[in-house]
Amino acid sequence: MIGYVTLGTNDLPRAAAFYDAIAAHFGVGRMMDFETFIAWGQWGGAPGIAATVPFDGQPATVGNGVMVALEVKTPEDVHALYDIAMAHGGSDEGAPGPRGDDGFYAGYFRDPDGNKLNAFCMVAAPQ
């Protein structure tokens, strides 16, 4: 079971502003807040997300093929989260919309450090 996902950052205050806005959409805030590490979520709740300056002192880099998927309830929530990301320094990786014909609805974006995320929900598949 995943407890939280950690993404590297080279600018923690910038990452904090981005993820504060994302977390607010889910109705949660910071559950851990240190000089080089911040985690958002709720103790005992759904898995959280964290941003950290790498412990080894090397620059944070983006993992090729790595993506964090944020589950929401409706296509409107997908659009809302995507719009929040764009308004807080995110970049587009695929506008919200249906993907395939199995009821998967998603919008893809990157955080200000280039980490890839998506907001998704499952809707009734076409019959």
UniProtKB/TrEMBL annotation:
InterPro entries: Glyas_Bleomycin-R_OHBP_Dase, Glyas_Fos-R_dOase_dom, VOC_core. Signal peptide: none annotated. PROSITE patterns: VOC. Residues 1-122 form the VOC domain. CDD domains: VOC_like. Transmembrane segments: none annotated. It comes from the Bacteria. This is VOC family protein. It comes from Erythrobacter fulvus. The lineage of its organism: Bacteria, Pseudomonadati, Pseudomonadota, Alphaproteobacteria, Sphingomonadales.
